[in-house]
């Protein structure tokens, strides 16, 4: 029974590791939904005034979405790998397909939160009702009293509505929410079709087989995890060595003492080595042997030797 549980746990671990992008995007979308709900309850207050309604409604939809997009770009490691590539190597490896795929990858992750925000805003309809209420024509409503213009229509999202037209509030809100939700569903359909076509294009253009591409994805994820964990341990041991040299002793817990004893560190990697494993990476094959990352290529001793005539470069990006 224990073995069965262990195998199932291992399978789930590998599954989620291979689907880390999907899970990350799902968590980002969920966080954005929660943030949107809090914003609607706490911070959204329609000014209910002509011209101000429109600006405030658009800002409530667009400004948070723009901020989330910028944050998504900033938090994406590929953004800074691209910056490092441009600074150190002048982006000489950035062919047109590579740049296209790079920006597609960065934008694909960065737009998850903004798209979620805009979709939820449109489906809720509050911001749209606020923004477009002043543009709703009174003539479009049956038996609407005359002599009421944009100033009155702009007050429908609020409570201070003239008594004479108060009975029309539900109809005005219903019409505007219908338009807002219709735009929201159209936006969802557009995004879904775009994602589907993009995935189809990616699969059709990929020179790798399905299983090899899945393996490459798992390799990158595992390599990144091991590299970060090992770098943390290496930094801790090196810091312990230097602190001991300065003070004559170092205060470590039992676990850290075992690490220092098991993995002696006397030196650090040169800047050249760091530069060689940092930056964008195009999938390569050297004499038919796959090279799955910059670190993999460096470990094979192929860095700094130029492009071999038998080396095959493919427009698939990794970082």
Helix content: 55-70%
Distance between the termini: 40 Å
Order of strands in the sheet with the most strands? 2-1-3
- Beta-strand content: 5-15%
Mean pLDDT: 78
Number of helices: 13
Radius of gyration: 28 Å
Low-confidence stretches: 1-19, 307-313, 315-319
Largest sheet: 3 strands, antiparallel
SSE arrangement, N to C: HHHHHHHHHHHHEEHE
Q: How does the helix and strand content classify structurally?
A: mainly alpha
Structure summary, number of beta strands: 3
Q: Which descriptor suits the 3D outline?
A: elongated
Question: What does the secondary structure layout of this molecule look like, with pairings?
Answer:
Blueprint: H1 2-18, H2 20-42, H3 52-74, H4 77-89, H5 96-110, H6 112-124, H7 126-132, H8 150-153, H9 169-205, H10 210-247, H11 254-262, H12 271-276, E1 281-286, E2 289-291, H13 294-299, E3 311-318
Antiparallel strand pairs: 1-2, 1-3
Subcellular location: Membrane
Pfam families: Ca_hom_mod
Keywords: Ion channel, Ion transport, Membrane, Transmembrane, Transmembrane helix, Transport
